[in-house]
Amino acid sequence: MSGRRALAASLLAALAAAGCGGREPVGAPALWPAAEPFATGTLRVSELHEIHYSLAGNPEGFPAFVLHGGPGAGSDPFYGRFFDPGRFLVVQHDQRGCGRSRPLLELRENTTAHLVADIEALRESLGVERMLLFGGSWGATLALAYGEAHPERVAGMILRGPFLATRAEVDHLYHGGAAAFFPDDYACLRAALPDPDAGPLPDSLVVWLTERGAETRRRVARAWARWEFNLAKLDSPRERMERIIQDEAALDDLAAIAGLEAWYTAHGCFLAEGQLLRDAHRLAGVPVTIVVGRYDMVCPPANAWRLHEALPGSRLVIAEGAGHSITEEPVLRALLAAVSGFAP
Asked: Which of 11, 44, 144, 322 has its CA 20 to 30 A from that of 229?
């Protein structure tokens, strides 16, 4: 992945610190040192798609599959720093259409069911029997979808700021919920859109970000990135974000990646309404830790609470003084503790 695309992907996923140096906040417990992958490869998952994956840590360690956010943001070495490299085999892959997977930004054959099947195909190709799933936001969505389809393969789950793919959550993000707290940013978002009242915003974003000319794509991508990024952290580094999105080359990458995220939200993430909560009983007996920032404006704590209630025996950690980002100290600390305490 090019440096610009990696930066755009990190911006999309609202991983501000990870995308701009991968440094944990001052006062947080130290993360594990970054580990270079000892193996990388590609896996052909259809006649159209192949996915890229990497392996890091201990080849004989317990497998931890890290599922990135977005959709479309791509894998990030920063995620591997939550895992003791002597204890875990850390598996990361770029989901269909993003990162180093090919074809890039392809919407055909790109649904949640396809992504679940890809995880299963990767597990089989690596000879993994059971795994720990680690994912935040959309990564938590995908972890739940996979776990509910293949519970016998899941030894545990650590989920951050879960997104449950309901209409209410999409409306919160795009149609006024979060705007109650960020009315100025929401007004700026609407002002930049060609026709903010044309229909459901995700549907319009797919058109503006994938079918219109470069000028429209860049204007919409800049406004959209500013909106989501400013929601993600309690103390959002707005000046840094503005410098990033003024880079026209990075903005082109961001527009394309954002189009993939819009594709999923416009289609309800290709899940039935309420499906993840409805099928949560299939995870009975699987140890699940859910971490959410008290002031998460992207995936509000109510989502995590509903999931916790649907998963008897799950552990819920509401991280005080934090928002959505994985790099905020209370969230980071809770995730490190969850990984450290995992016992297969």
From this structure: 144
Answer yes or no: 137 catalytic.
yes
Cis amide prior to 29 (ω within 30 degrees): no
Q: Which of 52, 68, 308, 324 is catalytic?
A: 324
DSSP string computed for 25-89:
PTTSPPPPPP---SEEEEEE-SSS-EEEEEEEE-TTSEEEEEE--TTTT---GGGGGGS-TTTEE
Q: How many domains does the chain have?
A: 2
With contact defined as beta carbons under 8 Å apart, do 94 and 37 qualify? Answer: no
Range of the domain at 146: 3-165+273-340
Residues 60 and 193 grouped into a single domain:
no
The closest alpha carbon to 17, from 235, 252, 256, belongs to 235
Q: How are beta strands 88-93 and 50-57 bridged, if at all? A: antiparallel
User: Rounded to whole angstroms, how far apart are CA atoms 77 and 56?
Assistant: 9
Catalytic one of 75, 101, 137, 314: 137
Same domain for 37 and 179, yes or no, is: no
The pLDDT tens digits for 50-99 are: 999 999 999 999 999 999 998 988 999 999 999 999 999 999 999 999 98
pTM of the full predicted structure?
0.93
C-alpha 315/C-alpha 234 separation (Å) is: 24
Confidence of residue 35 (pLDDT cuts 50, 70, 90): confident
pLDDT tens digits, residue range 220-279? Answer: 988 988 898 889 888 877 877 787 787 777 777 788 788 899 999 999 999 999 999 999
Give catalytic status of residue 296 as yes or no. Answer: yes
